Amino acid sequence: MKSILTLLIGCLYFSAMAQEIPMFVGTYTNKGSQGIYFYRFDLRSGEATLYSNTASEDPSFLARSADGKTLYAVNEKGDSTAGISAYRFNDDALSFLNALPAGGSYPCHVAVAKRYPIAVVSNYGGGSLAVFSVEENGALGERVQLIQQNGSGPDSTRQESSHVHSAFFTPDEKFVYVQNLGTDKVTIYRVEKTDNSFSLVEDDVISTPAGGGPRHVTFDNKTKNLYVLLEMGGMIAHYKKDKKTWTLVDTVSINEEDFEGENGSAEIKLSPDGNFLYASNRGDANSIAQFSVDKEGALHQQYVYSTGGQGPRNFNITPDGRYILVANQNSDNIVVFQRDIETGVLTDIEKNIEIASPACIVFK
Asked: Is residue 132 part of a domain?
């Protein structure tokens, strides 16, 4: 009888733990933040419990390894301290592994491959792309490539030179798509292996609407539809693939029809089932837009929600698709929205997380 009771208690414990998932928040450290914050997010209640924090300078974007055991952070500085850092995760805290110079100023994005031991860092200030090898224990190896992009765009203030903003692996990880806000270009690189090392080789270039400023992208699972978020334009550029050619088929606004003001589009993501797309806008909007995605991949705006704060720099969707958390950088809060799986509709459940200058949220 005692063994049965022990087994039941154990099952209940592990069931409860399964409902709590790790959540990491990267911040800017100019307003008192310590750096990276580790929470456990309860998928039943929508509540986040802070477990620990790790000192790091301006870890504005995070990425987690495929096995979940390593966390990578860019240190978005404008001088020689700009870099990428690696941390080991042991279920309740992070421990520092190592850090390397980013190869440029103001690194703002990092992407980590699941199939290959490489990490890709986007240097906004320097306009370059850095590729790093990753060791078996998750630590950063050497910088194996530094790709300098050049050019400019029609906006002389924001697009005076190259500004690499992000790099995303395709779902099959055969290619990396690199967004350059300064040149209105998306450059496609092929991942190639030579002996035991990997490198990126330029394969194609997509021109995006002039003056739009591509920031982030997302793909459908078959990489037949590409959605490019234009930071300066407050728009999404939708491309469809025909054989090997991407064709622009539509541009849609992420704002309400009567919106007037400055744009600052920040993040774009598809729901886990691919039926809905969400995009945030900072600037004067402080909003997150919801689109339905039809069978052809076309976007149809449904709702535009207030993010309950200012400067929604980043948001993320929980793996089960039932919550969206929005990091409002300028108002020092993360707003928790419950998400209806069937309709995509968001509801603020008033479970706000108070945190200084949140910039990035990562679950897996």
From this structure: yes
